[in-house]
Amino acid sequence: MFNDIEDKMIHECGVFGIYLNNPENDTDAARTTFYGLYALQHRGQESSGLAVSDGRQISLHKGMGLVTEVISAEHINRLKGNIAIGHVRYSTTGASLPVNAQPLVFHYLNGMMGVAHNGNLVNTVELRRRLATYGSVFQTTTDTEVVANLLARYSQDLLEDALAKSMIDMKGAYALVIMSEDRLVGVRDPMGIRPLCLGELGGNYVLASESTAIDTIGAKFIRDVNPGEIVVIDKDGLRSLQVFNSTRSANCIFEYIYFARSDSTIDGINVYQARLELGRRLARESGIEADLVIAVPDSGTPSAIGYAQASGIPFAEGLMKNRYVGRTFIQPNQKIRELGVRIKLNPIREVVAGQRVVMVDDSIVRGTTSRQIVQMLRDAGAREVHMAVASPPTQYPCFYGIDTSRREELIASTMSEAEIEKFIGADSLHYLSMEGLMESLQGKGNCFCNACFSGDYPIKIEM
Questions:
Q1: Model confidence over 57-92: pLDDT tens digits?
Q2: What CA–CA distance (Å, rounded) separates 300 from 312?
Q3: What number of other Cβ atoms are within 10 A of residue 84's Cβ?
Q4: pLDDT over 50 at 4, yes or no
Q5: pLDDT at 139
Q6: How many CA atoms are closer than 13 Å to the CA of 144, on its beta-carbon side?
Q7: Distance, CA of 233 to CA of 240 (rounded, Å)
Q8: Which end of the chain is less crowded, N or C, counting CB atoms within 10 A of the terminal residue's CB?
């Protein structure tokens, strides 16, 4: 699934959880989760929701739309308790429907449970069929409900033990925050594909998809949850269970290229610094002669700054972004989609006119938006437009949380670089090499999933 205006792969989802000991106000958990979700809004804009436990029962509010559209002060005042989890969603597995909004809250043998999930299981069909054979019923089309049913199957165990058993069955990418009436649990898949981190707020603990959410609520970042680890937070504090010790980690490389906010740090790598380095390496590889470096805002900006630093070519703001364009303009109609690009991005004629411009973006998916922007720059008087992309060609679909299941949607899978250059109308096109990408990031000691570029899937895909 793509953002129709920006021609980008859509972010997956964002999760947040908090456990408060003796809160000053019985709505503090809900209120803090609201702000945590607000900081993660870039990870999902279709639906939002939060669930709160008061120690006896779990209350839920969720709906379609942005966090501020779904959750009001009135809702927060009704969601009383000391444990909360929240979720922002783009649909990956499961359609964009109200019933699929998260968190999911359900009753089972031991009481109530809430589940919020970022990622995608690759064996959902098999698990759903197996669970249905055992008598499970499903009300949604999400793989998150499959996780919930797995947990219910092991309901004779403690929540963390049930989760450890469920992890044996689950194949794929997942970061989960789970709550019962009296505890908060976080878990990360054995390869660490999807991010999850831990923070501390006045002696209390917080879980979030990105460190920026921890910063936003005034908490202190502690560490990333390890791949294959379960963290349990209750009245006795924090404890950890290392369920899997995988021989390979495979952090999603697109978090550093596009998905995560630039002010986040994931698995020891600051996203902004990573994007700067990608731009620097791209400049050294491409060697374009030009007068000006501009970015496709906002995700291309750090790499464009890095490009300018390494090349010595001045950086300028050549494209102005209208940051008030929301989901209203994400439409399937091609004419409206093209209008949406012009509404969202506008060249600054006085900056680009007569200039040889290097336009830096983080990636190209279909190429349609790149083509329009190149033409807009030419219409604004740019003498030359060179496209520089701070990642390799995106040739393969992702099955771990971004629903790009049709390879033919990816322009680099059907066209050569020369053909793409001609299609978008640029004077030249330069992608960052795979070697440049990996060397820019692997100096940090991490291993990554780069299947969208290489086709090397770390987890077998069950079609």
A1: 999 999 999 999 999 999 999 999 999 999 998 855
A2: 18
A3: 32
A4: no
A5: 86
A6: 32
A7: 9
A8: C
Q: Report how far residue 339's alpha carbon sits from residue 122's, in angstroms, rounded to the nearest whole number.
A: 36
Q: What is the pLDDT of residue 367?
A: 93
| Long-range CB contacts for residues 59-66, cutoff 8 Å, separation at least 24 | 60/103, 60/105, 60/114, 62/87, 62/101, 62/102, 62/103, 63/98, 63/101, 64/96, 64/98, 64/101, 66/41, 66/326, 66/327
* CB-based contact 109:156 (threshold 8 Å): yes
At 329 the pLDDT is: 38
Q: Is residue 303 a contact partner of residue 283, using CB atoms and an 8 Å limit?
A: no
Q: Is the pLDDT reported for residue 384 higher than 90? A: yes
CA distance 129 to 134: 9
Q: Is 452 a catalytic residue?
A: no
Residue 45 tokens read as 């804009």
Write out the DSSP string of 114-137. Answer: EEEEEEEES-HHHHHHHHHHTT--
Q: What are phi and psi of 233, to 5 degrees?
A: -125, 125
Strand, helix or coil at 2? strand
Say if residues 389 and 443 touch (Cβ distance below 8 Å).
no
Out of 13, 252, 398, 449, the active site residue is 13
| Cβ-proximal residues to 402 (8 Å cutoff; 6+ apart), any chain | 1, 9, 10, 11, 12, 92, 120, 254
State the DSSP string of 164-224: HHHHHH--EEEEEEEE-SS-EEEEE-TT--S--EEEEETTEEEEESSHHHHHHTT-EEEEE
pLDDT > 60? residue 46:
yes
Asked whether the predicted pLDDT for residue 290 surpasses 90, the reply is: yes
